[in-house]
Each structure stands twice: as C-alpha cells, then as structure tokens.
C-alpha cells in the first residue's frame, strides 16, 4: 500500500533523474496531470494515466482532487501508485493535495517522494545566477500571496525567487526594480518555447523571476 510522488523537473526531459525513472518503471500505475509537461516527459518512458484538475474555483478543485484521489487510492490499496509532477513534489505541487486525499481514504498508506529539479534551480543554471552564498538568505515567494509580500521579502532577504507571477509580471518587475535589483527571468524552461527575456506584458503562469543581491567580489558575503 504505497503512493509515491515523483518530481520530473520543470520541462527539460533530461532533468528526469535516474531515481525518478526507476520509480516510474517500478510503479504498478503512473498518474499524471492531463495535457501537461509531466505527461509529455513521462509518456516517453512509461504508460501513464492522465487526470483532470481544475483551479478555477474551490468547488471544482475539491471535486477533481476527490476524483483523482479515489482513482489513485484504488491502485495504492493493492500496490504502488505513482503521481508524476513538474518540478519537485514538495514545492507548490498538486501532489500534496493528492497525498492528503489518498491518506484520508487509506490511513495506513505509505507516502514517499522522489525530489525533482525546480524551476529556480533550472533558471539559475541557464543564466549563471548564484542563488545564495555565504550567509545570504533566500526566499521563495508566490506572487499570488500579494505584492506586499513580495516587497517585504525584497526588503528582508538577499535573494528572492518569484513564482506564479505571470499574469502580473509588470508588477513583479516593478517591485524588483524599485528594490534596486536586476531581475533574472525565464519561462517555458527546457522546452522549445523557452525564453530568458521578459515580455512587456503578461507572461505564462509557469514563469520564474530571480532577484539576486548585488555582490562585491569573491567571498564578500561570508
């Protein structure tokens, strides 16, 4: 009786780890969000079952989580069910809601996760951006928490990463600029439509902004 959440990275198929691939192949059944990046990556290696999710309103979200959880629980009840998710299953992932639902149906289920590369790591690598060094502090902020939360983080932390800010990208970039920082931007990371240049207006939901600190020489923040 087992459920495993598997991170497959933000979009680059080569970011699927060896451990993730082994877990996918050993599972009795693999579930993925339908029409998503995880499905594209996973379907190249194993057969997978797509699940529909809705984020439009609370009632729709709960209904889809319940339906997905029930399907996954039936597999987990007699073996190992896997749920593949973009990025990491423990960072702003649908898997956490699925795991909660399955646990309610199967209190004795074993829940495990396989870590995946996150968008902030991918973007940092592609742009040569150091996320943190020495005594620097790092904050990950979903812009959905509000512009004030982003500005608080920019005033308090050395490096700030912003997720979920696509629709409000001009506001995100304005806050970063007013904090005296140079933004690092990326969208569709690892995919054919990848760009590291911020658009003038709105951006996709899956876009990432890094606001690193200004550093003075080697070891300046030790």
Automatic annotation (TrEMBL):
It comes from the Bacteria. The keyword Protein transport does not apply. Pathway: Cofactor biosynthesis; adenosylcobalamin biosynthesis. InterPro entries: 4pyrrol_Mease, 4pyrrol_Methylase_sf, 4pyrrole_Mease_sub1, 4pyrrole_Mease_sub2, CobI/CbiL, CobI/CbiL/CobIJ_dom. One of its GO terms (molecular function) is precorrin-2 C20-methyltransferase activity. Signal peptide: none annotated. Pfam families: TP_methylase (PF00590). GO terms for biological process: cobalamin biosynthetic process; methylation. Residues 2-197 form the Tetrapyrrole methylase domain. Keywords: Cobalamin biosynthesis, Methyltransferase, S-adenosyl-L-methionine, Transferase. Belongs to the precorrin methyltransferase family. NCBIfam families: cobI_cbiL. This is Precorrin-2 C20-methyltransferase /cobalt-factor II C20-methyltransferase.
């Amino acid at each position: 009786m087992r459920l495993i959440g598997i991170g497959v990275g933000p979009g680059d198929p080569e970011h699927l780890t060896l451990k993730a691939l082994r877990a996918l192949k050993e599972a009795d059944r693999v579930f993925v969000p339908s029409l998503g990046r995880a499905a594209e990556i996973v379907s190249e290696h194993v057969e997978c079952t797509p699940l529909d999710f809705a984020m439009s309103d609370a009632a729709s979200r709960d209904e889809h989580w319940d339906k997905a959880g029930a399907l996954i629980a039936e597999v987990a009840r007699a073996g190992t069910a896997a749920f593949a998710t973009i990025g990491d299953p423990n960072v702003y992932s649908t898997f956490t809601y699925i795991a909660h639902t399955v646990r309610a149906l199967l209190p004795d289920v074993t829940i495990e996760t396989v870590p995946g590369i996150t968008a902030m790591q991918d973007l940092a690598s592609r742009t040569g951006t150091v996320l943190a060094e020495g005594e620097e502090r790092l904050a990950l902020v979903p812009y959905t928490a509000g512009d004030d939360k982003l500005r608080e983080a920019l005033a308090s932390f050395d490096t700030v990463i912003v997720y979920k800010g696509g629709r409000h990208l001009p506001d995100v970039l304005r806050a970063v600029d007013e904090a005296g920082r140079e933004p690092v931007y990326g969208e569709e990371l690892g995919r054919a439509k990848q760009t590291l240049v911020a658009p003038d207006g709105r951006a996709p939901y899956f876009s990432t902004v890094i606001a690193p600190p200004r550093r003075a020489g080697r070891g300046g923040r030790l």
